[in-house]
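Reopening this one. Same input as before:
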Amino acid sequence: MQDLRQTAVTLPPAVCPGDLIGVAALSGCVDPQRLEAGVEALRQLGFRLRLASNVSYRCGMFAGTDAERLRGFHDLAADPEVAAIVFARGGHGVLRLLPDIDWALLARRPRAYVGYSDLTPFLLQVVARLRCVAFHGPMVAADLARGLTALEEQSFIGALAGDWPKGVPLSWVSPGEMRQGPLLGGCLTLLTAVLGTPFAVDFRQAILFLEDLNEAPYRFDRMLTQLRLSGSLTDLNAVIAGHLTADDSVDPEADRACDKVSEESPQAERLRQLLAEQSCHFGGSWAWGLQAGHARPNLTLPLGMWAQLDPATRSLRLGPV
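Same output, byte for byte:
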């Protein structure tokens, strides 16, 4: 199990309009209309684009064979002009590729990597292996294709440029003192999927962010329990819940964020209760309502950056104290 506390994590070089962004596809096959819409959205934001060679490929459920997906990604990573790589979509596929990613190649050119969902293990490996902040944020044929809200656009552009808000509001924070540590985490399903592998990480002294799509309360509780029993949550400083949906009508393969998440539904209340019950096993500090994940708004979060969970202001503060 990898320990993410070894050395300081740095921000990748700033990315601004006019820079070249690569669009990679390591996971599911990409809908061409959504891809076109997302690419146009990035162009409207002022970026130049270079698409991975496999972005339009289809091999079963994947955007090409394993070799084709890796080659398309590595070609982008080897291009010194590519200032950032934003992933086309999630779905499934990254786990198959993790052992064969050329981390030495990625280390030669620090850059921003942006994605979420199936990209969660990859992003955490960027933090662990490259000691560089990775971004849990919008994907091209998903969020960008459906159109970013003004808040999402501001968050995305600001993150790439290294410009952070003083505090990100939360719906609820458990009483107590401020908790701080590196912000880590992502999609709960993918965090449990790597347990027992060389790509599992522990989150000691971290602030762990969790989000997921279409998970019934019993599955949510089972995954939290599995993480706890594995030792992944030992000495955790806090847990923050992002968007958590339990709506069976949502198609997880669509990679389209839900329009909204109701925090008043009985299912949402049950998820809150389960998180509160589990919190006694990892220090008792937890929060709810971080606006990130498989729903609008999906704010861009800097994984690996130092953060503070502040009960007094009910916010997540990013950057050094």
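So the earlier flakiness isn't reproducible anymore. For the record, The first strand starts at residue 2 and ends at 3.
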